[in-house]
Specification:
heterodimer, A: 275 residues, Thrombin, subunit H, 34% helix, elongated, B: mainly alpha, Arp2/3 complex 21 kDa subunit ARPC3
Chain lengths: 275, 168
């Protein structure tokens, strides 16, 4: 206290000056709109600049995670290249580029609306007819499948989310190749049920479930999830619970997959069925 | 003592009135605005205590601001000028210091001394005032031009006043 008093007395001249000038600045900024606006602009410029720098630093800390994601994505793309190309066997001897025919086209899109808490969920994308999106195209993200396009407008499209009781996807166990229909359990945003797998084949917890490629919508062997639980149901079939690998609560960037041969394939299929 | 006090109060009021009623209405080509009211700070005795100097500077600035509708600008400039006055006095002090009982006037320390003293403080005051009014450094030199021209005119009037009004 005594020290403080001594300090105040010793520097009273400078302190009083600072006090009076502070009052002056307050009066100036309070009473002059121009000065007030300039002052606010100035402080905003400083705080804006500051938060930009902080953001830049924060970016560095997330580089590891970002790198990991990029590597994953790269790996996935390498894998996709093989499966997205349909090799023509008709003229195998002449190996020209025309033999490698593109089967799938990937159109990037962004999720602009998404629900996970209903029984019939939909995902809205920011790409539409103008970007080449048509009904019945597959929607996937880097981690797994997302859904199937249902309606398209000029600039937007809506997809039936996999979290929709109406959607069934043909899936297979990657290891053994056995396939069956996969659908959402209706509970949580992470669980699906795979049916029609005969109980005599061996499966393990953690086995990978991928798309079967038997529908004309999803490409072959696209990641869906892993087995999280299974038991024998009734007599002949397993009841397998699959944990989806895509986190539907945070999907943001997705790809819409166009199958260039879908019409051809479906036409053939319908011909065969009509027999 | 009372007589001295009354003299300074009278000088305060008169200078504010002259500034507000006469010099604020003189606009020479938009560049020159003489602010002669700072003469009050210049003429305070050497032994004025620091705190009184600051408070008087503050009050003087507020009074001018109230009349000019420029809230805060003159206050800031005049308080700063009052704050710097002791330092300026120290820098330009004559060899044997200031005599007790003397005032910062031409009659005591001569024209050159008074001119330097008034010029330094006037330029400081005008510089701060004009830049606070503009509040940014864009067009730095056009404002500096105004500062210099106005300072010259203010200084001229202040020195003139020393010969005609405040003669002994």
């Amino acid at each position: 206290m005594k020290e403080l008093l001594r300090f105040l007395i010793r520097y009273h001249f400078a302190l009083l000056f600072i006090l009076l000038e502070s009052i002056g600045i307050t009066i100036l900024i309070q009473n002059n709109t121009y000065h007030k606006a300039s002052f606010v602009n100035f402080t905003h410029a400083i705080s804006g600049n500051f938060s930009k720098r902080i953001d830049g630093i924060r970016d560095y800390f997330s580089l590891r995670e970002e790198n990991r994601q990029l590597i994953n994505e790269n790996n996935k793309l390498y894998n996709l290249v093989k499966s997205s190309v349909n090799i023509s066997y008709i003229d195998q001897k002449i190996e020209t580029e025309s033999n490698l025919r593109l089967k799938y086209v990937y159109i990037p899109a962004r999720v602009i609306n998404n629900s996970t808490n209903k029984q019939f969920n939909y995902v809205i994308l920011d790409k539409g007819k103008q970007d080449g999106i048509e009904p019945d195209m597959a929607v996937v993200c880097n981690d797994g499948i997302v859904g199937v396009i249902k309606e398209v407008s000029e600039h937007f499209s809506s997809a039936i989310s996999f979290l929709n009781r109406n959607l069934q996807v043909s899936a297979k166990i990657k290891k053994s190749g056995h396939f069956g229909p996969l659908e959402w359990t209706g509970k949580g945003h992470q669980n699906a049920r795979l049916k029609d797998i005969p109980h005599n084949i061996k499966i393990q917890l953690g086995d990978t479930i991928v798309t079967s490629g038997y529908s004309a919508i999803f490409p072959d062997s696209y990641m869906i999830g892993r087995i999280s639980d299974f038991h024998v149901e009734g007599g002949n079939y397993y009841d397998i619970t699959v944990e989806l690998s895509a986190d539907f609560k945070k999907i943001r960037n997705v790809q819409v997959i166009k199958n260039l041969f879908r019409e051809e394939q479906e036409k053939l299929e319908s011909l065969t069925q009509n027999d | 003592m009372i007589k001295e006090l009354a003299k300074y109060i009278f000088r305060f009021v008169i200078l504010v009135l002259i500034q507000v009623l006469i010099f604020n209405n003189i606009q020479l080509s938009g560049y020159i605005n003489p602010y002669i009211y700072i003469l009050f700070i210049l003429l305070l005795p050497f032994d004025t205590p620091g705190w009184l100097l600051l408070i008087l500077g503050f009050l003087l600035g507020v009074s001018i601001d109230l009349f000019c509708d420029t809230m805060g600008m003159h206050t800031l400039a005049t308080t700063l000028m009052a704050f710097l006055r002791p330092f300026v006095l120290n820098i330009i002090a004559p060899q044997d210091g200031y005599e007790t009982g003397s005032n910062p006037r031409i009659s005591f320390y001569g024209f050159t001394w008074f001119f330097r003293y008034a010029a330094i403080l006037t330029v400081i005051h005008h510089f701060v005032l004009f830049y606070i009014e503009i509040f940014h450094f864009g067009g730095f030199f056009s404002t500096l031009f105004r500062v210099i021209l106005s300072s010259v005119v203010t200084l001229f009037i202040i020195i003139l006043s020393q010969f005609f009004v405040y003669r002994h």
